[in-house]
């Protein structure tokens, strides 16, 4: 992986996904620890670290008009300025990092992310974050369709159940053109400029999975 054309994209690692919050992610402490290892490796290598942070101001809520019809305050997320919307201390942004505020699931929609990546000359995106089946998926598909190579780190992504995480990963794998899925140790090798191994997308929809085969296919990635 050419590190001069690589960035680390960390999606929605915010307090509202902790245990006891409205949207608890299974194994979130481990996700945060693994993402922190990626961030440390990226900074050491001079690879840009980009935090996509869900951040919605009150005047921006009309973008989700249909959600607003049914939403109660206990399930409101990404409230700009709230503790829940704050990036977790374990992976907090530092000087030199880039923070992208987003109001939609995708980190690309109506943000300056595409422009920032173009200025930096980025081709490869190493991706971590939550929720695997929502904001990570939306962001990754937008990245792929804009011509970026997305490399998902399995242990640095998560969702509200393991099933949601695993099916989300397989859905992305089926259309992860030009990229692939990495285990954390291999992702750390890649960010150190070393050779690395991982699953690579070689055809559309490689995994016509069933409820019975999800775990077997996921574990093989």
Protein model, in words:
It is built from seven helices and seven strands, in the order βαβαβαβαβαβαβα. The protein has 221 residues and is an alpha/beta fold. Strand 5, helix 5 and strand 6 form a beta-alpha-beta unit. Helix 4 runs parallel beside helix 5.
Percent range of helical residues: 25-40%
Round the mean pLDDT to the nearest integer and report it: 92
Instruction: Encode the helix/strand succession as letters.
Output: EHEHEHEHEHEHEH
What is the number of beta strands? 7
Instruction: Let me know the largest β-sheet.
Output: 7 strands, mixed
Outline type: globular
How much strand? Answer: 15-25%
Stretches where pLDDT is under 50 for at least 5 consecutive residues are none
| Distance separating the two termini | 19 Å
Question: Care to give the gist of this entry?
Answer:
Helix content is 33%, strand content 18%. By secondary structure, it is an alpha/beta fold.
Salient structural properties:
single chain; 221 residues; alpha/beta; seven-stranded mixed β-sheet; 7 strands; globular
Give the helices and strands, then pairings.
Layout (H helix, E strand, L loop, with lengths): L5 E6 L16 H18 L3 E6 L10 H6 L27 E5 L10 H8 L3 E7 L1 H14 L3 E10 L3 H12 L6 E3 L1 H8 L7 E2 L13 H7 L1
Parallel strand pairs: 1-2, 1-4, 2-3, 4-5, 5-6
Antiparallel strand pairs: 6-7
Helix pairs in contact: 1-6, 4-5, 5-7
């Amino acid at each position: 992986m050419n590190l001069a054309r690589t960035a680390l994209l960390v999606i929605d690692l915010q307090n509202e996904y902790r245990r006891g919050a409205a949207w608890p992610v299974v194994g979130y402490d481990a996700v945060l620890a693994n993402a922190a290892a990626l961030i440390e490796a990226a900074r050491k290598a001079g690879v840009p670290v980009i935090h996509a942070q869900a951040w919605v101001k009150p005047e921006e809520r009309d973008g989700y008009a249909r959600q607003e019809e049914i939403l109660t305050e206990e399930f409101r997320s990404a409230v700009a300025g709230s503790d829940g919307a704050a990036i977790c201390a374990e992976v907090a942004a530092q000087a030199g990092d880039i923070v992208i505020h987003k109001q939609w699931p995708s980190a690309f929609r109506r943000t300056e992310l595409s422009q920032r990546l173009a200025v930096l000359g980025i081709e490869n995106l190493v991706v971590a974050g939550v929720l695997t089946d929502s904001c990570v998926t939306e962001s990754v598909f937008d990245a792929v369709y804009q011509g970026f190579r997305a490399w998902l780190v399995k242990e640095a992504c998560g969702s509200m159940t393991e099933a949601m995480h695993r099916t989300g990963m397989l859905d992305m794998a089926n259309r992860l053109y030009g990229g692939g899925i990495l285990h954390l140790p291999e992702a750390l090798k890649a960010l150190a400029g070393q050779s690395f191994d991982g699953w690579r997308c070689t055809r559309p929809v490689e995994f016509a999975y069933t409820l019975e085969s999800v775990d077997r296919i996921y574990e093989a990635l």
